Amino acid sequence: MKSTNCLVAISGIIFASQVLAGDIKVSEAWARATAPGQENGSIGLMITSQQDAHIISVSSPLSESAELHTMSMDNGIMKMRQLNDLFIPAKKTITLGPGGNHLMLFGLKRPLKTGESIPLNLTIKVGKNRIEKIKVLALIRPLDSTF
């Protein structure tokens, strides 16, 4: 009986880590656990669209706000800035994570604990006019994890 329960739990994690919505596939969404007192968190994921698309917004019920961000190094200084949207070229997988484009959560309503998941809502403009709303669960990994 225990092995059946374990298999069901593993199937749930696999399903949660990959979402298909129309022309869009989101996979390997995850966040780092937060340290005590940490109010913000970052999320990485992989996303592919069969048509040119743009992520135009992100939100989570577990944070006050969420933004698309980019990170770059300028003369040894890390600089982050908010993006209005993020282009996803047709049939190319885009990886979001540290050292580049990523999702930021601000004003976390509770700590992010290893092994739990955080729900995300992505709004994606596909082609010229179609809007897709995609719900994703990001698995929370240990604080010392790398993307």
How would you describe the overall organization of this protein?
The chain has 147 residues and is mostly beta strands. It has a single domain (2-141), classed as Sandwich (Immunoglobulin-like), CATH 2.60.40.1890. It has one helix spanning 2-16, and strands at 18-21, 24-32, 41-49, 53-59, 63-74, 77-83, 86-88, 94-96, 102-108, 117-126, 130-141. The longest helix has 15 residues, at 2-16. It starts with a helix and ends in a 6-residue tail after the last strand.
Write the layout of secondary structure elements.
Blueprint: H1 2-16, E1 18-21, E2 24-32, E3 41-49, E4 53-59, E5 63-74, E6 77-83, E7 86-88, E8 94-96, E9 102-108, E10 117-126, E11 130-141
Parallel strand pairs: 2-11
Antiparallel strand pairs: 1-2, 2-3, 3-8, 3-9, 4-7, 4-10, 5-6, 5-9, 10-11
Brief synopsis:
The chain has 147 residues and is mostly beta strands. The protein has one helix at 2-16; strands at 18-21, 24-32, 41-49, 53-59, 63-74, 77-83, 86-88, 94-96, 102-108, 117-126, 130-141.
